[in-house]
């Protein structure tokens, strides 16, 4: 069954490395449908998005509002277009384009492996199968599904919390009010996974405190915006290509137990947006850049 899933979601990714490469895609909605931005604009938008920016000027005419996922005309803010992020996508190279990075000398073994992994989905296919197998055997305290059949985006529902933890108490109250017994998180895998860590997005309920990253405001020193990013050494300096998603998910679950986060508003069903999560994570990452405890 899983093999059929893989065949349906990544047929294009199984092309030869010398012919294809992976990238994210950004599109804006025209009157006739969705249209992709230029390659240069996509690179600029993706760069600002990963930095957790809420807004940036795309050019002299348009600005990108990540919070509302819209393109705004700068001289008339009422003129807006919806935007969306898709991918990773696969794009054919020009026939005369050398797919290999420019070399100053002999390519190292690490560089060769990195080059292969950046466009090879087989590792992620295997990791997804391992994770689903653990779920099917009933040995995993979570469920895992792809988001829109995208191998690079997973949605996880964490369950079976430690009765002695604050998280268990919070979720018990939340379940009584709303009938929801799980914490939803999402994993976004970069094109060069496993060399780079997946981004972890705590979606819902809105957990705050503990290892859930925060972004300080400019209002007062003690006020904070809790943003849904996961602040943990394993996702920063401590990442290793040998870490598999199943193990990472269990580590996240353990950190949520140990961090004793609370639910931001027990009376509402709310979730953190991906942009809020990325913004909080970048703030936390910068704050811990020189913190040796995160190495």
TrEMBL record:
InterPro entries: UBC, UBQ-conjugating_enzyme/RWD, WWE-dom_subgr, WWE_dom, WWE_dom_sf. Gene3D superfamilies: 3.30.720.50, Ubiquitin Conjugating Enzyme. Residues 75-101 have a biased composition (Basic and acidic residues). GO terms for molecular function: zinc ion binding. CDD domains: UBCc_UBE2Q. Residues 119-295 form the UBC core domain. Pfam families: WWE. SMART domains: WWE. Residues 75-112 are annotated as: Disordered. This is Ubiquitin-conjugating enzyme E2 Q2-like.
């Amino acid at each position: 069954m899983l093999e059929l899933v893989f065949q349906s979601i990544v047929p294009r990714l199984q092309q030869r490395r010398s012919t294809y490469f992976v990238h994210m895609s950004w599109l804006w909605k025209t009157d006739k449908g969705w249209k992709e931005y230029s390659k240069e604009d996509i690179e600029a938008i993706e760069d600002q998005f990963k930095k957790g920016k809420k807004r940036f000027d795309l050019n002299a005419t348009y600005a990108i509002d990540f919070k509302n996922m819209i393109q705004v005309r700068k001289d008339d803010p009422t003129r807006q277009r919806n935007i969306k992020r898709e991918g990773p996508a696969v794009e054919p190279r020009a026939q005369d384009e050398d797919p290999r990075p420019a070399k100053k000398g002999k390519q190292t073994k690490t560089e060769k492996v990195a080059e292969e992994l950046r466009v090879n989905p087989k590792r992620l296919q295997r990791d997804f199968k391992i994770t689903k197998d653990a779920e099917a055997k009933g040995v995993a305290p979570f469920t895992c599904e792809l988001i829109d059949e995208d191998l690079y985006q997973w949605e996880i529902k964490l369950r079976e919390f430690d009765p002695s933890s604050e998280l268990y108490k919070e979720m018990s109250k939340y379940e009584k009010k709303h009938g929801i017994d799980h914490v939803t998180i999402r994993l976004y895998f970069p094109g060069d996974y496993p060399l780079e860590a997946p981004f972890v997005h705590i979606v819902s309920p809105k957990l705050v405190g503990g290892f859930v990253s925060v972004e300080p405001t400019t209002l007062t020193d003690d006020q904070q915006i809790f943003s849904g990013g996961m602040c943990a050494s394993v996702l920063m300096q401590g990442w290793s290509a040998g870490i598999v998603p199943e193990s990472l998910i269990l580590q996240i679950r353990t950190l949520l137990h140990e961090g004793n986060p609370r639910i931001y508003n027990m009376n509402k069903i709310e979730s953190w947006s991906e942009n809020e999560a990325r913004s909080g994570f970048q703030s936390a990452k910068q704050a811990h850049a020189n913190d040796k405890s995160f190495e």
